[in-house]
């Protein structure tokens, strides 16, 4: 899934919109865990928002979320690579198009 939050006025608004959509998507696909790359400058706000959204979605018994650094979870490199290719457009986007099941403009 690709979340395009480029229309938001700042990085915080874009990140918040992305996290809200991510929680909704986790509920839709029955995910048990969300792993988010840790950014020390946003972790408190992220946790507050994630807690609220998980509660609102009624997922508090089924979905957990963790903030980890890239070296703690090597799979975090995959969404970074996909996002980079998607943002580059053209042949880069075409190269990853088959792996993108859904995309949303936030």
Structure description:
The protein is of the alpha/beta class and 106 residues long. The chain has one domain (2-105). 49% of the residues lie in helices and 15% in strands. The chain has helices at 11-29, 43-56, 77-88, 90-96, and strands at 2-4, 33-37, 64-68, 103-105. Strands 1-4 form a two-stranded parallel ribbon. A two-stranded parallel ribbon has the order 2-3. Helix 1 (11-29) packs parallel to helix 2.
Summarize the entry for a quick read:
The chain contains four helices and four strands; from the N terminus they run βαβαβααβ. By secondary structure, it is of the alpha/beta class.
Secondary structure: elements and pairs:
Layout: E1 2-4, H1 11-29, E2 33-37, H2 43-56, E3 64-68, H3 77-88, H4 90-96, E4 103-105
Parallel strand pairs: 1-4, 2-3
Helix pairs in contact: 1-2, 3-4
Keywords:
4 strands; 4 helices; Resolvase/invertase-type recombinase catalytic domain-containing protein; two-stranded parallel sheet; 106 residues; globular; alpha/beta
Oligomer: single chain
Strand order of the largest sheet: 1-4
Taking Cα atoms only, what radius of gyration do you get, to the nearest Å? 14 Å
- Percent of residues in helical segments? 40-55%
What is the number of independent domains?
1
Largest sheet data: 2 strands, parallel
Straight-line N-to-C gap: 13 Å
How much strand content do the residues show? 15-25%
Total helical elements: 4
